[in-house]
Automatic annotation (TrEMBL):
Belongs to the glycosyl hydrolase 15 family. The keyword Hydrolase applies. CDD domains: CBM20_alpha_amylase (cd05808), GH15_N (cd07430). InterPro entries: 6-hairpin_glycosidase_sf, 6hp_glycosidase-like_sf, Carb-bd-like_fold, CBM20, Gal_mutarotase_sf_dom, GH-type_carb-bd, GH15-like, Glucoamylase_active_site. Residues 7-16 have a biased composition (Pro residues). It comes from Streptomyces silvisoli. Gene3D superfamilies: 1.50.10.10, 2.70.98.10, Immunoglobulins. This is alpha-amylase. GO terms for molecular function: hydrolase activity.
Length: 840
């Protein structure tokens, strides 16, 4: 990982000698080292001296940026008392989150090593890194860093203290050289999601390094105590890392950083002059520095072994309560370990203050170019209901009904609004960040409620709002699942249909047959219109017939333009395809055998499929995608080149399961596992070409690693393969559309020739629920794509007499009805028909 910022970092507390801090309590003085260690430490302290230091110069420090997301491990302790989450990568502890999983508080914690005269190394830059699991059934990660110069080796094992908000790092430092070496801890706080608001000093009672920013504080302590420490401003002369790099010593003992800024903290740890030294670091967080210091002391007092035992037990108990790993992963140790890590990290992603809240990922994509100079919306530390649904269905499939239920309750309480609109994304406390309207995010909570059997009155009241919102606003969506374009999307329409059918089931369970009929009528109308709204027969790709990614006006054959976000360009709607249509079969809206789906698979395979030798088969989001690194591998800047997403291999694998091709599905599962890095983290995107620009072919790029949607997809696909079916397909939807169309329905297209003034829109309303039962609020909107003809397709009951009229809704909210009498039409037994009318 490249830090993209100067190496500067802190030093030590005021008035401390380079030997033991004078006021360190007995606990900290009772070192496991011999007197030789203490003497060696004092000898190497050089000119540090006893003199008190002034406040560090250079405030506020260099601009702050978030770490790039080379995450190789993510973990927390499964206890309510421990509110810290952490990521590991590039040989260091990267980001720690406290007191919620949406709030990053650090840039990193690593060691510096020097001989005091000729060299100073940092772990990130000057060692080779390996990561492994100490215990395959808990998230106990270990990093092993071997010096490039061969002079030392550092082994670090991480656990979160289940009893406190403390990360413990058991460290073994091996001096492999013939001369004494000095070891320094280098810690960069970014408390409260803010890189420029931090102050720091050394605690006068313990010698711990403390930092604070408003109501969040941290304390860094060691079981050995520190022999020197300092706080400075990152990227300036007062930064301890700069002091070590330039002079091989910490030259400003006791220095503090009282002015808020981008600070860096450095502390010297006494190590033996030769051989190995083992000790524990504690990085504690609290609402005040005194609280953090107290917790650090308590964790070190209880010992690493105690915390490790509790940490492992928490994970063992949770996994033990789930279904056994499916047969699809038990034939290979790699696949099985990937399954268990993916499942555990999805669980670890859950917040503890807002139970059931899951963020999209514990990181910032391309974070090395993302400013951290102030608190704000950095990266994927937000809740997206779509991602939350994917994680909840994976947990449910694995046997964790508790967390799946908590996820639904969280969404209904924090993401749903009083109108039924679901926020595009939000912080864990429900504060909305972006303001887009995505109809699939309105529908997915309804599907999850059905899958969980949640038919209680409270859940029904929330589901009703969601379903009513879809009835009033669907099938067009403000944004589809890639959050960039509005219009008619097959993936969104699939979610709407499934949500409405599931809502009808819940309505029926609550005795509301009228609402159930309305929802089914709307669902049938959308299901019947998917092809006419989104399936082109005049396209330029693979035979010309396939689902487009999105069409602005519900006419996939008229060549409307679609502007691709992220600098992708503007194209004929028929020239842009994605794999979202597979939601139609996954959600039971169309059979997997549908010829339209088969034709569309040929189109995406011709445009966005990538086969990487030795890894597997992958797909991009859509052709012309600009969300990714630049062509030369630089960080995404608002325009770039979209690359393959392993999660889409999982979606293709689920389709293979539905068609009975379990061999193909297993290949997709293996493709996903092979795209993971050495820490079993599967990313948002991978590098498809030859290894270059710092990236390895078939491995994560600098987007989001891990993406929790991807980790959840791996779990669900593994379970699907062994089950021989897609376990998250709502049965009530699949049964309704088993034959490819609504039961006992006729597809009726209403074409009304009507001139309108600016701001007017035309709707059809009528005597049956599918036409709103004469309620203008539930009337069916017609498309103006072929103006002055307004058009829309509705599924109506077969062999039924229907009365209807057209209305115009005016900009001021008033309604103009066409003249009497009512129009009438009697449907046949099956098929489709177009009614050509003119406004009167």
């Amino acid at each position: 990982m490249s830090r993209k910022r100067p190496p500067g970092q802190p030093s030590r507390p005021p008035g401390r000698s380079p030997s033991w801090p004078r006021s360190t309590p007995l606990l900290r003085r009772a070192s496991l080292l011999t007197a030789t260690v203490t003497l060696a430490a004092a000898a190497l302290a050089g000119s540090a001296g006893d003199a008190a230091a002034d406040p560090a110069p250079g405030a506020p420090g260099a601009n702050a940026f978030w770490n790039e997301p080379h995450v190789q491990g993510f973990a927390d302790a499964l206890s309510a008392q421990s509110k810290v989450w952490y990521t590991l990568g590039d040989g260091e502890l990267q980001n720690v989150f406290y007191p919620q999983v949406d709030t990053p508080d650090t840039f990193g914690l690593q060691y510096y090593v020097t001989d005091g005269s000729s060299f100073t190394d940092s772990e990130v830059a000057n060692t080779s890194h390996a990561v492994s699991l100490v215990d395959p059934t808990s998230l106990e990660w270990q990093q092993t860093n071997a010096a490039s110069n061969g002079k030392y080796k550092i082994t670090k094992t991480y656990v979160a203290d289940p009893a406190r908000s403390v990360v413990l790092v058991r460290t073994t430092f091996q001096n492999l050289s013939s001369a004494p070496l000095s070891l320094y801890a280098q810690y960069d706080p970014a408390l409260g999601n803010d890189g420029m608001g931090n102050t720091g000093a050394t605690d006068g009672g313990t010698g711990d390094l403390t930092a604070a920013n408003g109501s969040v504080a941290s304390a860094l302590a060691a079981s050995t105590g520190f022999t020197a420490s300092s706080t400075g401003y990152a990227g300036t002369a007062s930064d301890g890392a700069n002091e070590l790099t330039s002079g091989h010593q910490l030259s400003t003992p006791g220095q503090t950083a009282p002015t808020a800024g981008h600070i860096a903290q450095t502390a010297r740890i006494p190590v033996a002059a030769s051989g190995s030294t083992t000790f524990t670091l504690a990085l504690a967080f609290g609402s005040s520095t005194s609280a953090a210091v107290s917790d650090a002391t308590a964790s070190l007092g209880a010992g690493f072994d105690t915390a490790e035992s509790g940490f492992q037990s928490g994970w063992h108990n949770w996994l033990g309560g789930l279904n056994a790993p499916p047969a699809s992963v038990t034939s290979g140790s790699k696949l099985k370990q990937q399954y268990e890590v993916s499942l555990m990290e999805v669980k670890a992603d859950e917040d503890k203050t807002h139970v059931g809240g899951f963020v999209a990922a514990p990181l910032t994509p391309w974070g090395g170019s993302v400013s951290a100079d102030s608190a704000g919306a950095h990266g994927y530390h937000l809740v997206w209901t779509r991602d939350e649904y994917q994680m909840a269905t994976a947990l449910l499939a694995a046997g964790d009904t508790t967390d799946a239920n908590d996820a639904l309750t969280y969404v209904l309480d924090y993401e749903e609004t009083s109108s039924g609109y679901v926020k595009q994304n939000s912080w864990l406390d429900g504060t909305q960040e972006w303001g887009g309207v995505q109809e699939d995010q309105v529908a997915f909570p309804i599907v999850l409620a059905y899958q969980l059997g949640r038919t209680d009155a409270t859940t029904w009241s929330k589901v009703k709002l969601l379903a009513d919102y879809i009835v009033s606003n669907g099938p067009a969506t403000g944004q589809e699942r890639w959050e960039e374009n509005g219009g008619y999307s097959p993936s969104t329409m699939a979610a709407e249909v499934a949500g409405l059918v599931c809502a009808a089931q819940i309505a029926t369970a609550n005795g509301d047959s009228s609402e159930a009929a309305t929802y089914l009528a709307k669902a049938d109308a959308i299901q019947s219109a998917v092809d006419s709204d989104t399936y082109t027969t005049t396209g330029p790709i693979a035979g010309g017939s396939y689902y487009v990614r999105i069409t602005p006006n519900g006419n996939p054959n008229n060549g409307d333009t679609v502007s691709v976000a992220n600098g992708g360009g503007t194209y004929d709607e028929r020239a842009v395809v994605d794999q979202g249509f597979l939601e139609l079969s996954r959600l039971g809206v169309k059979p997997a055998s549908s010829p339209q789906i088969g034709n569309s698979l040929a189109a995406i395979d011709a445009t966005i499929k990538t086969v990487i030798p030795g890894y597997g088969t992958y797909w991009g989001r859509y052709n012309h995608d600009g969300y990714g690194e630049t062509a030369s591998g630089g960080d995404y800047t608002g325009a770039g080149v979209g690359r393959p997403w392993p999660v889409l291999s999982g979606e293709r694998g689920e389709y293979d399961v539905q068609t009975g091709d379990l061999t193909g599905a297993q290949a997709m599962l293996t493709s996903m596992a092979d795209a993971a890095n050495s820490g079993y983290q599967i990313s948002e995107q991978i590098w498809p070409g030859a290894s270059a620009d710092g990236f390895a072919q078939g491995q994560p790029d600098n987007s989001a690693t891990p993406l929790m949607w991807t980790m959840a997809q791996y779990v669900r696909l593994a379970i699907d393969i062994s089950a021989g079916k897609t376990v998250d397909t709502p049965a009530v939807v699949a049964q309704r559309y088993a034959n490819g169309s609504p039961p006992n329905q006729v597809s009726v297209t209403f074409d009304e020739n009507a001139t309108t003034s600016w701001g007017q829109n035309v709707f059809v309303v009528g005597s049956v629920p599918a036409l709103g039962s004469w309620d203008p609020a539930k009337s069916v909107p017609l498309s103006s794509a072929s103006y002055p003809v307004w058009s829309g397709t509705v599924s109506l009951p077969a062999n039924s007499a229907v009365q209807y009229k057209y209305i115009k809704k005016n900009p001021d909210g008033s309604i103009t009805w066409e003249s009497d009498p009512n129009r009438s039409y009697t449907t046949g037994a099956s098929g489709s028909v177009t009614l050509n009318d003119t406004w009167r």
